[in-house]
Amino acid sequence: GFREALKMQAWFMLLKAMRKKPGRSSKNTWPENNLSLIRKLTTTGLGACMSVFLSAQNLLPADGYLIINAGPGDPVYTTYTAAPARSSLYDDKGFTMIYDDFSSPLTYGSEHGGKFSTVWEINSVVVNRVGDFHVKPFIKATFPDMALVEYEPWPGIRVEEIFFVYNSNCAVVDCHLKNNTPNTHEINIYPVLEDADSLYVIGFDSISNSYCFNHYETKKRLISNLSDKYPYPDHFYNLFSAGFPIYSYGAYQGDMEDLYNAIKTDFYS
After folding, report:
1. Could you tell me where the beta strands, DSSP code E, fall in the chain?
2. CA–CA separation, 91 vs 134, rounded Å?
3. DSSP code at position 178
4. pTM value?
5. What would the pLDDT profile of 84-120 be if each residue is shown by its tens digit?
6. 218 to each of 87, 111, 112, 201, 240, how far by Cα in Å?
């Protein structure tokens, strides 16, 4: 089974802040609010289709003084952007991590580009809110372009999650699971993207394991609007991709409660 020393690694990625290609048609698209990719795994059969390691990996910085173990009540700056050497001037995208809102999942999002998160279904129980986690998320380490977070969505199921803004066009979540119980668990993982402004789905590409979609971003900002004198892009072509085999995907209208209801009534999952 999926024992103490056995863990799996999974990642999903959002490629965004890419200018819409000239001449790209919106034909055969449909407006939706949110996207979801679904990965099913059983802890006893994980080695067949996931990257599985027989020795535990300690996801910690080499220098101990960088470990902060910050909880929801600690003052931590959780906005992340790519390093200057990997960023561009006009389409650079920053992300804010929300880990202390107990009514929502652990999310990473931008002002107009949407936010993405993971919804868990463990032993047929849907865990879609931080408040329902057995161990609430805490930040083990944080850097200007990266955060290392740990939590337990289920007793004994430890998750170490790395959020990394690689460049202005790419953000990655690298998720490591470890079962610290002697029991077998069936887990469905739902990477979700929601609330992108004017999101239009183009389709799902099975070769790249990605959802392709467009979205629009206004130049209005909370503090200082973007000037029309400079070539700030406003139409974007995006990829929402998973680094593991998925068995289903879908686009839906609604909020997280609607996704919860869809999962609970999906008798074929």
Report:
1. 7-15, 30-31, 34-42, 51-53, 79-80, 95-98, 107-110, 114-122, 125-127, 135-143, 146-154, 157-167, 170-179, 186-194, 200-205, 210-216, 235-242, 248-252
2. 38
3. E
4. 0.78
5. 999 887 767 889 999 999 999 999 998 778 888 999 9
6. 21, 10, 8, 19, 21
